[in-house]
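Problem 12. The chain below contains 565 residues. Write out its predicted structure in token notation.
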Amino acid sequence: MKKLINDPRNVVREMLEGIADLTPHLALLDTENVALRAGLPAVAERPVAVISGGGAGHEPAHAGYVGPGMLSAAVTGDVFTSPSSDAVLAAIRATAGPAGALLIIKNYTGDRLNFGIAAELARAEGIPVEIAVVADDVALAGVVAPERRRGIAGTVLVHKIAGAAAAAGLPLAVVSVKARSAAARIGTMGVALGACTVPTAGKPGFTLGEREIELGLGIHGEKGVARGEIRPANELVEQMIARIAEECGLQTGDRVALLVNGLGATPPLELAIVARHALAVLRQRGITIERAWNDNLLTALEMPGCSLSVLKLDGNELQFLDAPTEASAWPGSGHIPASRSIVAATAPIAGPAETHLDAADSSLRGIIMAAADALEAAEVQLTDLDSKAGDGDLGASMVRGAQAVRALPESAWSSPSRAILDISTALRRAIAGSSGPFYAIALARAGRHLAQQRKLTAENWVEAFELAVAAVTEAGGARPGDRTMVDALEPAVRSLKSTAGLPPRERCSLSADAAAAGAEATASMSPRLGRASYLGDRAIGTPDGGAVAVAIWMRAIAQAISNQA
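Solution.
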């Protein structure tokens, strides 16, 4: 790790001290990592305080947006870690008067919890507090519910609008409504060309091949929704704008503000190329871009890549975006020309060619049906296991899932990706509780990956399986050792990746062995998630039913592949 730091444990405070040393209107709290406006009016005369924050590593967010006309205070946690509720409360106490405070929160569990606790404590002290949650990550459409999407770079626009509204003297109820309204109309999607390195970790969060990228990522150094091959900037921009337009309901005649955000290591040259085509694509859709900005605005340390944020404007938001601010990181007026002064006489660049896959052959259907047979045959076993550490419905759930797969129409087998995606939908609808959503999320991610391939290989299937397992861990928060289905899935993935040179039937058999061993190992684990966690150590001695179910269908798949070889 090569970084211009001292002790990794002190990077946050030293960073804030550096910013304060360079910014006349900024001050720091002595006991917390809070940057706030210097020289605030007397308490009784203060307008609504607008407060935001999150983990460090997103610079210039959030301290760079503290200043008249924008944030009253920014609360900074450790790198990629939510600040404490005490720190947030200290920021409220330091900046809020009788007019109260608005907390702008990015939609992460830690931020929601700690900012939410601070809000309740402040209210108990008599300080009016409202909350606006930003959940602008449209890449998670189809993966999580809209209310569970991450808050990412579009948050900067909410900072500006809320800060200007507060500076105009508007009351807390109005400022909060304007912030929430703006947040609800922002869509953001990102792409990463590489990983970043958290100082305390000392190594990148993931590894990409020379031509690999991550699509649909957050701002904490994590992997994206999907991994793909690097493509021309224009194609990537088109993909991102299309997703944003779909999720935000953008139509011809709409007015928007555009934010092109660098993730930390993307040079201005590349960001300008991205901005160029983002403007063009929006205009091609008949959308008017009232304002646009292009800069490193909310980063992920030194991650190479960018995100696009589009805010669908209402009738009066421009006045808040145009209002003056002394926040050092706000990138300026955002005024852009209606068009280039020189327009190339070329046709619009076509989007990426549609992927066409061969129809799924009978072997895939046979493999899937073998898994369904095995789960139906294991109903009693799975019910018994789940009765000892859960609610006893796992066996019936797996049978319902198997029946739903059998009922798929012929059209579901038109291609491998279509089959996997339709199975995802079938399981989501057929299986109640947590098993259905977990399998649905996993298969949806796998199916999308397969759909991106022009010709499927064994490694594409391994990649899809890996993405599916990642989806399960992200959705439920489970990790190996937590006594869940992940304890069978994760070793199965590792086995597949480590046996790349072997014939498919051997790889699958070894992977099934790894899943079975992982499932058996759960018998000695104390559960940390799900209903079984309520039993604590009383669950030890019985393997986790969900992990056993994974081992069952993986063994069935391995046997089916062996029989076809």
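Discussion. The first strand starts at residue 26 and ends at 28. Students who got a different answer should revisit the alignment rule from Section 12.3.
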